[in-house]
Write a structure and sequence with these properties.
This protein has 210 residues and is mainly alpha-helical. Helix content is 42%, strand content 4%. The chain has two domains: 1-38; 43-95 and 133-204, no CATH class. The chain has helices at residues 6-38, 53-68, 71-74, 144-152, 162-171, 173-176, 192-204; strands at residues 84-85, 90-91, 104-105, 108-109. The longest helix is centred in the first third of the chain and has 33 residues, at 6-38.
Length: 210
């Protein structure tokens, strides 16, 4: 039987603990970095190194996809007639439905509960107006590529040209609510100003889809 000096055992044990600690720290840092990347937006100029125009345009839209695919957008661009709520995107409670104008049924209008601004004590989001996206503009359940094609189609984007998409994303108040959603909800990544810059760059680069 091989005898191992006590000193060597202690050294090996200490080394193993150091390696394990370093590994856990590395995983933690990577996790924080990944989370940070998911919650931020790269500026348009960071894509200038992509010399192929179409590839650069696709990359810009993929970055914009962080916003488009966030619950702050997809909850109101919900498929069907019922909006979703929260970061978990659960069906709206109490049960409410789109209605003819996207603002609810006559017996339960959106503004009965959703006022002109957030009411944080009750965790109630608010904006004037408060509404679901039109049914032809639903995004839920679609890929980013499918949403891209839809966004470019005036028949499915509210009759907007590509140029008109820039102020819609960048200046619209209800869209802007996604970055100030109140207590209990994660804001959309980046800022509305950064999103506007990405949409503008995407349009100017040819508005290519993934």
């Amino acid at each position: 039987m091989i005898s191992v000096p006590r000193f060597s055992v202690k050294v090996l044990a200490t080394a193993a603990m150091c390696l394990a600690t370093s590994f856990l720290v590395l995983l933690s840092v990577r996790g924080i970095a990944a989370s940070s990347s998911a919650n931020t937006l790269a500026p348009p100029e960071s894509f200038n190194t992509i010399t192929n125009r179409r590839q650069r345009s696709v990359a810009l839209f993929n970055e914009l996809g962080k916003v488009i695919m966030s619950p702050r957008c997809t909850n109101c661009h919900s498929a069907g007639d019922r909006p979703r709520q929260g970061d978990s995107q659960r069906p709206h409670e109490p049960p409410v439905f789109r209605g003819a104008d996207g603002m609810g049924l006559p017996a339960m209008r959106c503004n009965v509960c959703h006022q002109k601004s957030n009411y944080d004590p009750a965790r109630m989001p608010g904006h004037e107006p408060w509404a679901m996206a039109p049914v032809e503009m639903t995004w839920e359940g679609k890929t980013l590529s499918q949403i891209c094609v839809q966004i470019k189609d005036p028949k499915r984007n509210g009759g907007k040209s590509l140029a008109e998409l820039v102020p819609h994303f960048g200046d619209d108040g209800l869209v802007g609510w996604g970055w100030s959603p109140g207590v209990g909800r994660t804001p959309a990544p980046g800022t509305q100003k950064q999103t506007k810059a990405l949409v503008d760059a995407w349009v100017k680069s040819g508005a290519a889809c993934p």
